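pasting for ref
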Amino acid sequence: MLGISAQGYYKHDYASNEADILSASIVLYCLYVRQKERLPKAGCRELYTLCREYFREKFTIGRDRFYNVLRSNSLMLRRTRYRPRTTDSRHGYRLYRDLVNTSPKYTPAGNGRLVVADITYIYTREGFAYLSLVTDAYSRYIVGYCLSRSLDAEGR
C-alpha cells in the first residue's frame, strides 16, 4: 500500500533498532571508560579508538555519527584553556614614547646601536614561566634574558 515490501519494512526497522542499541552501548561504554579511576579526561578521538577496539565488527558507525552520539548525550569535553596574563597596562611605571617607529623609520647601522625587548611565557611542568629577552636589532642576537615565575619588577 505504501510502496514498501514487508521485507524492506522489517529490514529498515531492524537496522534502526540495531543502531539505537549500538548508540546506547556506546554511551554506556564511554561512561564506563570515563570513570574517575579509569580515563576521566579521555577525549573524543581516544574514545572513538577505544570503541572501535571494544565493539570490533559491530561498530558500524563513522566518526561524525559517533561525535553526534557523544554530543547528544552531553559527553563532549569542554576544552578549558588557561592563558597567562602577560600585559599589565595598569602599572605605576613611567611610559616612554616610541623612538624607533618614527618617520623616517630608524634602522640601526651596526651592532649595539639598537636593542629591543620582549616578554613571552613558556609552559613548564610546574606551571607558566615568563621569559624576557633583550635582542640586538641589527644582528638579531640575544643580548640578555631573564626567566621568572612571575611578572614582578625584579624578574623583568
